Amino acid sequence: MQERRQEPGVDALMGQFHAYLAKNQLKTTRQRDLIAHKFFASEGHISIEELLTRSRAENPKIGYATVYRTLKLLTECGLAAHRRFGEGQTMYETAGDTEHHDHLICVECGYVLEFHNDDIEREQERVARSFGFDLVRHRLELYGLCPKARGIKGGSCPNEAASDA
Hints:
alpha+beta, 6 helices, two-stranded antiparallel sheet, Dna Ligase, domain 1, 7 strands, 44% helix, flat, 2 domains
């Protein structure tokens, strides 16, 4: 997950988070703010461990439990969404500001790729209608192996490329 989101978007999300904390009579702390800011500045999916590493780069005293509790608060107030991939792999993404997307997940390295495909969306709607369903929401997760995990000569792991950027 890369830090790419523009500051005005981060500032608006931080404002919403502060409003939630105030409404629920919870403290605004420097550690919570740093963690929330790192989360909102990231794009795509992020794990607790990755967010901990990014937060500790600025404040080495931040602990795992503080990151966990902050993400829990962000999820409770609707600013974060958690996704479980594979065998217990939980990732988080900013909620509400992204269009629907599906996921490709490498079972070897854990890389999660977001994608959108109109043909797949239409087919899912068609299948649902054929059984008399009106879709309210759905989630599509495809599990496989990235080029490096498949052993393709010269194949790279998108996860490694993302961390190098």
